[in-house]
Amino acid sequence: MRVQDMNWQMVEAYLQRDDRCVLPLGCTEQHATLSLATDSILAGRLSEEVAGPLGIPVFPTLPYGITPSFMAYPGTVTVRTATYVALLGDVLNSLHAHGFRRILIVNGHGGNAPGQGWLGEWLAAHPGARVQWHNWWNAPRTWKVVQKIDPLASHASWMENFPWTRLPGVTPPDERKAAVDLTRLKQLPPREARTLLGDGNFAGLHVRPDRDMHLIWQAALAETRDLLEQGWSP
């Protein structure tokens, strides 16, 4: 259940019987022909579809992440790593103060990885808490399905092209784009990165049939649900 559909009394009552919650992390950045909010849309929707039937609160998705390399693409918003880690710490501190002890972070943006590295520091200071950081799109079972469908897949390609990340009136190219040299890309400033990437797709087709996307989504739902139900250390 979404926190925006609850009041504080409902949360207080929930905490009398359970200490789990879900925190989705997204980003606002270029995704070729897809929505700039693709990472946020996917992390938020996945969290709600998994936690809703279990009656577990899902907090609003953090819509901004760490994405400095895409700042030559209008609409992209990036935050400094120090800012992001500080914000994440404040959010987790708030959840912990209210009594949440098992927090599943559903991350939709690879650039947020510094938060995952920092998480050990937070856990060391909160020994009674359990936090799982779940990069849903490349988690083992979900990524296996992606690779089985088409191994040429990456950021802003077909693997993120779901019905809910597409934009009306926008027709994606038919090209099957060769994989970008990521080692080279990571060395470039934003304007040169845009020149290398073009529309922003890293590799592969821009779109595949909806039946393929359904398979990926079902795998992601099952994998995330298992973490929420069974992934907690004693």
UniProtKB/TrEMBL annotation:
Keyword Hydrolase: yes
Top-level lineage group: Bacteria
Coiled coil: none
Record key words, sorted: Hydrolase, Metal-binding, Zinc
Keyword Manganese applies: no
Pfam families the UniProt entry points to: Creatininase
Record EC number: 3.5.2.10
Requisite cofactors: Zn(2+)
Molecular functions per Gene Ontology: creatininase activity
Name of the top EC class for this enzyme: hydrolase
UniProt similarity note: Belongs to the creatininase superfamily.
PANTHER family: 2-AMINO-5-FORMYLAMINO-6-RIBOSYLAMINOPYRIMIDIN-4(3H)-ONE 5'-MONOPHOSPHATE DEFORMYLASE, 3-DEHYDRO-SCYLLO-INOSOSE HYDROLASE
Protein name: Creatinine amidohydrolase
Organism field: Deinococcus enclensis
